[in-house]
Amino acid sequence: MGCVSSRDKGAAGSTKRVRKPKPWRHTEAITRTQLNRMREEFWDTAPHYGGTREIWDALRAAAEAELSMAQTIIDSAGVIVQNPDLTLCYDERGARYDLPKYVLSEPTNLIRDNNDS
Length: 117
What we know:
It comes from Beta vulgaris subsp. vulgaris. This is DC-UbP/UBTD2 N-terminal domain-containing protein. Residues 1-31 are annotated as: Disordered. Residues 16-113 form the DC-UbP/UBTD2 N-terminal domain. 34% of the residues lie in helices and 10% in strands. The chain is α+β, with helices and mostly antiparallel strands. The protein has a single domain (22-111), classed as Ub domain-containing protein, DC-UbP/UBTD2, N-terminal domain (Bacteriocin As-48, Chain A), CATH 1.20.225.20. The strands form 2 sheets. A 3-stranded antiparallel beta sheet has the order 2-3-4, with no helix packed on it. Helix 3 (53-63) runs antiparallel to helix 4 (67-77). The longest helix is centred in the first third of the chain and has 14 residues, at 32-45. It is globular and about 40 Å long.
């Protein structure tokens, strides 16, 4: 039995298993080049939203990795996963990290562009 503010690590700790985000659709069809541009812009500006550069770097590495490696990165960085698809995470100091789905997976309405092979 714990105090009112104590939490079970399984309920709110970094032990939540990372999973792929559910399929999503962008407001309009976009190309891979446009998607990559959006991702780069997000990652370049993300540290300005708060939190630490180290956690943002770990989240980027996890977002770009396979699921098993992503889980290892998240666990090693001490990231507390609120949503298993990584759209909402916290660090050990309580800083909040919101990740848009477009940095985590591709939209269902992604179209080919001249840069796709």
